[in-house]
Automatic annotation (TrEMBL):
It comes from the Bacteria. GO terms for molecular function: transferase activity. GO terms for biological process: carbohydrate metabolic process. SUPFAM superfamilies: Six-hairpin glycosidases. Keywords: Transferase. It comes from Modestobacter muralis. InterPro entries: 6-hairpin_glycosidase_sf, 6hp_glycosidase-like_sf. This is Prenyltransferase.
Length: 355
């Protein structure tokens, strides 16, 4: 049985095991991992849920979710923005959805050292990140989506770009692992990191949303004093003591995923106690079966929307793993240097991964 992380006084291993089981219960027989059974599926959230399955030792289920995505990838490297029961319900191609598979595949490698899985999924990762780099704008930011004619939209979103910064770094690590360097990805990651740090005008103004506040820290674009300063600047705007993080600054609505993602950002800058406090603050969203409600409206105590999503539960598992720091993939967020070490070690060992 896989040893799950524990966050003393917040979540024990048995509680997290129950949460992983709640995520697994929503997976379809063909591997599809939607928000909830019968609900919508998008590539980004499906990858996040699969990552939580890997933390919980459900490796076959995680690989089934990645396999579903590989089978449904379009020739240009994208996925539709939304599927339901395998059918496309929103055809738009979003860069953030394309990029995140690289994070998931690198995460599964860290968890399992499964070379065969990396070999199977690498072509899908390569197509997806090639698309991402093709969508990069002159500013260094990446367009949020393709227009119907296949050209990149002029708008770039900060949260999505921060996630893409992490995705490109994971993709670069995977490229080193399989022995297929991708210099275009290196250049794209460098330019994107510069845009995230120095060119705020390159991104649409969505500063009302908490994700735009903490995501550059979570994804490793901001580190050191710059990361500390950013977290301090938005703290009083978004953090509701004892309840979690507002999704939007001017709404009385806290959400579990955003709270856990802030915990990941705090862990990345070494503030594990503060991260654990945020994880504790959102436990009012936990349901009896270990799943998690998406959010709570503070003014009337109503859970909204009335849904328990796999990606909210996954954010809990990933935050707990990062805070505990004991799992093989815990450093994915907290220790950016961990992205490179296993690849260097693997290249020194015999095995299928070698081109």
């Amino acid at each position: 049985m896989t040893d799950l992380p524990e966050v003393p006084g917040v979540l024990g291993a048995d509680q997290l095991r129950t949460t992983v089981a709640a995520i697994a219960a929503e997976q379809a027989g063909d591997g599809a991992l939607p928000w909830y059974r019968g609900g919508q599926l998008d590539a980004w959230d499906s990858v996040e849920a699969a990552m939580a399955l890997d933390v919980g030792g459900e490796h076959d289920r995680a690989l089934a979710a990645y396999g579903w995505l590989a089978r449904h990838q379009r020739p240009d490297g994208s996925w539709a923005a939304e599927y339901r029961d395998g059918a496309v319900t929103a055809p738009a191609a979003e860069s953030n959805h394309a990029g995140y598979l690289a994070v998931g595949v690198w995460h599964t490698w860290l968890c399992t050292q499964d070379a065969a899985a990396v070999d199977r999924l690498w072509p899908a990762v390569r197509r997806a990140l090639d698309l991402v780099t093709a969508m990069q704008l002159v500013s260094g930011a990446v367009s949020w989506a393709l227009r119907p004619d296949g050209t990149p939209d002029d708008t770039a979103l900060l949260t999505g770009n921060a996630s893409l910064h992490q995705a490109l770094r994971c993709g670069i690590a995977l490229a080193g692992l399989v022995g297929e360097p991708q210099p275009d990805w290196d250049l794209a990651a460098t330019e994107l990191g510069t845009a995230l740090r120095e060119r705020p005008a390159a991104f649409a103004d969505r500063s009302r949303w908490s994700m735009d506040w903490y995501y550059p820290v979570l994804a490793g674009a901001l580190t050191g004093p710059a990361a500390d300063a950013r977290l301090a600047a938005g703290w009083d705007t978004f953090v509701v003591p004892g309840a979690g993080v507002r999704c939007v600054a001017d709404r009385p609505w806290v959400t579990g995923a955003e709270t856990c993602e802030l915990a990941l950002a705090l862990t990345a800058v070494g503030r594990r106690d503060d991260a654990a406090a945020q994880l504790a603050a959102m436990q009012h969203l936990r349901a009896g079966d270990g799943s998690y409600w998406t959010g709570l409206v503070l003014t009337d105590g109503v859970r909204w929307p009335v849904e328990r999503t796999t990606w909210t539960a996954a954010a809990v598992v990933l935050a707990a793993d990062a805070i505990a720091g004991t799992g093989p993939a815990a450093g994915l967020f907290a220790d950016p240097a961990a992205l490179d070490r296993p690849a260097r070690e693997a290249r020194d060992r015999p095995g299928k991964i070698a081109g």
